[in-house]
Amino acid sequence: MDVASGSPTGTRARGRPEESFGPPSAGFGWFGIVVVAAFVGLVLSDGRSVGHLAFVAGFLLFAAVIVSVNIRPSLRLYAEHLLVRNALTDVWVPWASVERVEVRQVMEIDVGDDVIRALAFGRTLRQQRSHAARNQNRPVLAEGDGRALQGVDYTDFVAAKLMNVAQSRGGGGSRPGGPEQHPVVRTWRWAEMGLFGVLAALTTVLTLLAL
């Protein structure tokens, strides 16, 4: 599979997505941000010394990690591409290249010889065993338009939706031997990585100065 870096060419790389699916952990992430904000307020209300600022920098670093891991990851559906947003990467996947979507410990999207993983969508081993037992004798995914059947969880619904959209747009093995496809495009989130580096360095320096 040809994997490039940069922005996808000739695609709807800009503009609003047709549909978006946020991570199941988003609620926990926003709760964590509220807790961090409360601690920052308590620290600053106690003083503005170098030691206090070191604590604030550490809390901000922790908040940045929460956003990247629990809030930022998502799946965004565009006309020609699926955008898989992980903590520090974006992966543009042409619909015509999607062959299969399966939920294991993480959601796996088969694209030729490559496997794209949506790390925020998945199940623990215990959840996988429970899910297999619960759905052993009944279907878990709807056909046609991807609507969830009764009892199907969020992750299964998202996987079904992606597969249905892929099939309707030439993927899912529905158009074998079709025209040459655009490559999968991976990009690193350098801004977030730079922010982590700055906050980590700031926390370290302030901590050393406070000793």
Brief digest:
The protein contains five helices and nine strands; from the N terminus they run E-E-H-H-E-E-E-E-E-E-H-H-E-H. The chain has 211 residues and is an alpha+beta fold. The longest helix has 22 residues.
What does this molecule look like?
With 211 residues, the protein is of the alpha+beta class. It folds into 2 domains: 3-10 and 74-188, no CATH class; 27-70 and 191-210, no CATH class. It has 5 helices and 9 strands, in the order ββααββββββααβα. α1 (26-46) packs antiparallel against α2 and α2 packs antiparallel against α5. The protein is elongated and about 60 Å long. Residues 1-6 and 140-149 have low confidence and may be disordered.
What are the defining features of this structure?
211 residues, six-stranded mixed beta sheet, elongated, disordered N terminus
List the helices and strands and how they pair.
Layout: E1 3-5, E2 19-21, H1 26-46, H2 50-71, E3 74-77, E4 81-85, E5 89-94, E6 100-103, E7 107-111, E8 114-118, H3 125-134, H4 154-168, E9 184-188, H5 190-210
Parallel strand pairs: 1-9
Antiparallel strand pairs: 2-3, 3-4, 4-5, 5-9, 6-7, 7-8
Helix pairs in contact: 1-2, 2-5
Strand order across the biggest sheet? 1-9-5-4-3-2
Number of individual domains: 2
Number of strands: 9
Q: Give the termini separation.
A: 52 Å
Could you say which structural class the secondary elements and strand pairing correspond to?
alpha+beta
Helix content: 40-55%
Which outline best applies? elongated
N to C succession of SSEs? EEHHEEEEEEHHEH
Note the total helix count.
Answer: 5
The stretches of 5 or more residues where confidence is low (pLDDT under 50) are 1-6, 140-149
